[in-house]
């Protein structure tokens, strides 16, 4: 078996495994549905996820330690993850192969020449890690405040260490650039020290926007599988919808189709995970390169190079994705995968200019504070953004969520959806609840979304904690929000129409929604009695719809006599029930009126958990007459309405 065949089989295996994990992230009773399958394994193998969470929170969820294995293998083998494991990389490579078919060697070589834009992914990586690292820097600052010498030692040591690394060529930056980078970080710490308590260093984890593993999970979970489920019904009997999924699908399609023009377009120019592996691969033990045998300069190796790493010249080590096409193309055995560096020389990284590096880091540090000037993570929070059960406080949630869509995929009622701008730019594609769609609200005994979150942005909770039973009985059930009745749209409140749908469907026991009965006169319901025949009353000028008042919600009252229920009606007559209510029949000519009993709903804030079943079932379409907001949610005491 050739090495290329082995690589293709491996790519197909991991791509099929990825699709399988997406499919089995489904609640149900079948053997292939969620039954302990490690559905987050590829996300956990991704070291960018663990590194981002570590920098933002100074903690790592246990599963993310798989990323250490990937880092260790990269230091030995090079960028094997990109060329052999990554499902999005495999998809791009397949599309790129289709785009190159029919081209001669010269045109293929032209497409695989390195481009200055390949530096963009390193800028994006530095920007995203700096945005996350604000949390780590804040922790360093707090430590410095408790022990003053730490702060001053950091100011001196940080630029010195960076300058030393540059001098030793560990990082490809001139000494003045290293001092500039260290000075920028030190200045940030100094500003934080001098600014009032609270400061401006806040972490924000945005790696998931462009991380290829999170991107492909999000695209398949929210776009491709719902499209397939429409006709095939593989994972859902009813079509699943995700407002905002069109934008996700457009980005996925764009990045995929661009590989028709430039092989592995996303890997070369955008992928921050590839940039991280590129930084690590410069220290790899095994590497691609030329041997000592003189090269014939046929450039066959460059025609199918997936990374645009110039294997015929000084190899750009960080760009090699280990596709191994050069080994297969070389007819003279010059290209090899060995312990030695390439005989033609190596270029460790693309030319990263100091201003670009400093700008990327500085922009990342101030990105979250700038985004939070809108106050959506604080005082001006949007009550329409209801997070799934188990969500951390908003600031901590935004420091962990990678927008992978796993919680949205596993939700059995399809009420967890990607946010667009409801929670600001920082919250783009993070999960929020939308009770207008799906098959029901957020089920009271369901904790599936919290159990599949790979970063614990939704902390894993138990059914007992969710329902407030057992050890959690004193704390009560977990609340994700609270329902409010809109009196201007509610049928019993605004339109004299009987309705108790919200109260009937409330899953809490005792129910959080209760009603109070009132009797209201029906419009044009007053009439004069024409004749009385036992329990049957007639009106001379009435024009009622037959059976309209026979629902059990309508009553007839004559003068000041007690109302009696209407059990049947014709165009001009009413038949009454409960004959004992009137000791004697009224005489003809007396005034009578028809009343409707309205059961007007109220919400008990001490019992409502914000599950949204009432909003989903409300018969008022469009903007519901009862709506859930994030007020009174358990995750933030400042939002509570009850003690």
Automatic annotation (TrEMBL):
Record domain 4Fe-4S ferredoxin-type: where: 388-421, 433-463, 599-631
Keyword Chloroplast: no
Transmembrane annotation, as ranges: 12-32, 52-77, 122-141, 147-170, 177-195, 241-258, 265-286
GO-annotated cellular components: plasma membrane
SUPFAM superfamilies assigned to the protein according to its UniProt record, in alphabetical order: 4Fe-4S ferredoxins
UniProt keyword annotation of Iron-sulfur present: yes
Keywords: 4Fe-4S, Electron transport, Iron, Iron-sulfur, Membrane, Metal-binding, Transmembrane, Transmembrane helix, Transport
InterPro entries xrefs: 4Fe4S_Fe-S-bd (IPR017896), 4Fe4S_Fe_S_CS (IPR017900), Electron_Trans/Redox (IPR051684)
Gene Ontology molecular function: any one: 4 iron, 4 sulfur cluster binding
CDD domains listed in its UniProt record: DMSOR_beta_like (cd16373)
PANTHER family cross-referenced by the UniProt entry: FERREDOXIN-TYPE PROTEIN NAPH (PTHR30176)
Identification of the protein by name: 4Fe-4S binding protein
